[in-house]
């Protein structure tokens, strides 16, 4: 049998998630996570999925390169070393691909240079993605390394949604436009939602709510993205774990002129010290719900602001799409937090939206409907699988160029 294993690396600002899949049968062989990179108490969790064996390890991991080497060692212990001839490619999540990359792309020096050029518009993500790619290339220079871009799915947005209403020349010179992110997830979840409805992606309009630590909404018409909430960078849109999402841009001038803050300080404020963490000190929805149950007013207000923004985007995307077949909740918060799903659609009956309390309370890792049976617009929980989608696209590309 020809080799058919693909390793997927999803390098975030302080973590690396990875999965090894056999694409001949879709079996996941190993998966893991290195988090708190750069700290003394970094943590590695590795699972050998066919046996169920799990290894965990806590200790200092200095940087992303060290993290990559540590995860390569764990794979090696399970007989899945990066030197394995079974491996056909390594697929990398790359967050910002600008307008250049609309498809998965085999990485060479030109592609690396372009990803590097885009660092100013994805400062939390692209540098980590680059280190992941360079380290993997050094370990396996002979293997195709494929970049799968978060922005790719959104390149179908019409100009009316993608352009900001600013001077066109300035916008074009500095490539200021709305790119959108989490596209791999929006693509996967919108397709999986169509499947759940028993329809082809071309035949349905779906609103996808990707609510993780970073969060974004998208409006998908017939399988193609027509609008999304993130913009030039992953800062626009919904309230997130540590990011503000939408604000009046004049807040920035005000903080600079009146507050005496530097641009870098404001950048850090809006990207890392805002959102849920800025509002109540916690960015984990589990902790926020626990505090609400204890009567904590700050946590309550943070939750209410989060929901208010989410509702506005649901309403906006109903308007953008005209007719909506389903809205799908996904990622850490969307898949697990029933109170968020309930609150987000509460009062939207006139838009055809409601959830069934009992169905919403069910915990499952399977795609499922949580709206009443006769609902005009279906509400679904659809677990995302960015790693599978990256592996699928990576494998298809290397098979095609065989
Ligand atoms: N059981 C749960 N209930 C509520 N929220 C949860 C639960 N599990 C995870 N979350 C939320 O999901 C977030 C992480 O989502 P995830 O999609 O893994 O994020 P990312 O990929 O951006 O790191 C956590 O910060 C937390 O807020
Ligand atoms: C683009 C983005 O926000 O990604 P993440 O949710 O992984 O931070
Ligand atoms: Mg994520």
What does this structure look like?
With 402 residues, the protein is α/β, with parallel strands linked by helices. The chain folds into two domains: 5-149, ATPase, nucleotide binding domain (Nucleotidyltransferase, domain 5, 2-Layer Sandwich); 198-386, 2-Layer Sandwich (Nucleotidyltransferase, domain 5), CATH 3.30.420.40. 38% of the residues lie in helices and 20% in strands. The chain has 15 helices and 14 strands. It has helices at 64-77, 109-117, 126-139, 159-162, 168-173, 183-196, 250-257, 263-272, 275-280, 285-293, 297-321, 331-336, 338-345, 357-361, 386-400; strands spanning 5-11, 16-22, 27-35, 42-48, 53-59, 87-94, 105-106, 145-149, 205-211, 215-221, 224-228, 326-330, 368-369, 378-381. The strands form two sheets. Strands 5-4-3-2-1-6-8-7 form an eight-stranded mixed sheet, sandwiched between helices. Helix 1 (64-77) crosses helix 3 (126-139), helix 10 (285-293) crosses helix 11 (297-321) and helix 11 (297-321) crosses helix 13. The relative contact order is 0.11. The model has no long low-confidence stretch (mean pLDDT 95). ATP binds at residues 17, 210-214, 284-286, 332-336. Belongs to the acetokinase family. The active site is at 150 (proton donor/acceptor).
Provide key terms for this protein.
single chain; 402 residues; alpha/beta; Nucleotidyltransferase, domain 5; 2 domains; 8-stranded mixed β-sheet; 6-stranded mixed β-sheet; 15 helices; 14 strands; binds adenosine-5'-diphosphate; binds acetylphosphate; binds magnesium ion; Ac/propionate_kinase; transferase; Aliphatic_acid_kinase_CS; EC 2.7.2.1; acetate kinase activity
């Amino acid at each position: 049998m020809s080799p058919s294993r693909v390793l997927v690396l999803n390098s975030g600002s302080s973590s690396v998630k990875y999965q090894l899949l056999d694409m001949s049968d879709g079996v996941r062989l190993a998966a893991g996570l290195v988090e708190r990179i750069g700290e003394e108490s970094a943590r590695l969790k590795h699972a050998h999925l066919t046996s169920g064996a799990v290894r965990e390890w806590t200790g200092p991991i200095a940087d992303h390169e060290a993290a990559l080497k540590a995860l390569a060692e764990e794979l090696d212990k399970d007989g899945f070393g990066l030197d394995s001839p079974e491996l056909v490619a390594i697929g990398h999540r790359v967050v910002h691909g600008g307008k250049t990359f609309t498809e998965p792309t085999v990485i060479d020096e030109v592609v690396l240079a372009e990803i590097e050029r885009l660092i100013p518009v994805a400062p939390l993500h692209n540098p980590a993605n680059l280190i992941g790619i360079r380290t993997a290339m050094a370990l396996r220079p002979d293997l195709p390394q494929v970049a799968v871009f978060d922005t790719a799915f959104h390149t179908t947005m019409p100009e009316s949604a993608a352009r900001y209403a600013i001077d066109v020349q300035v916008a074009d010179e500095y490539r200021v436009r709305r790119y959108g992110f989490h596209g791999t997830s929006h693509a996967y979840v919108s397709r999986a939602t169509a499947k759940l409805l028993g329809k082809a992606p071309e035949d349905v309009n779906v609103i996808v709510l990707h609510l993780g630590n970073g969060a974004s909404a998208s409006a998908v018409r017939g399988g193609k993205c027509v609008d999304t909430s993130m913009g030039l960078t992953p800062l626009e849109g919904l309230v997130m774990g540590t990011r503000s999402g939408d604000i009046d841009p004049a807040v920035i001038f005000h903080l600079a002129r009146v507050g005496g803050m530097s641009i870098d300080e404001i950048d850090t404020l809006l990207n890392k010290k805002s959102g849920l963490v800025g509002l109540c000190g916690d960015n984990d929805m589990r902790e926020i719900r626990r505090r609400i149950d204890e009567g904590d007013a700050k946590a309550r207000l943070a939750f209410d602001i989060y929901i208010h923004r989410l509702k506005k985007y649901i309403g906006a995307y109903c308007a953008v799409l005209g007719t909506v077949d389903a809205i799908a909740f996904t990622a850490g918060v969307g898949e697990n937090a029933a109170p968020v799903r309930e609150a987000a659609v509460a009062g939207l009956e006139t838009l055809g939206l409601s959830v069934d309390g009992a169905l919403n309370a069910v915990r499952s890792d399977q795609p499922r409907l949580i709206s009443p049976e006769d609902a005009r617009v279906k509400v679904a929980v659809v677990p995302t699988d960015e790693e599978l989608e990256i592996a699928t696209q990576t494998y298809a590309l290397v098979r095609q160029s065989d």
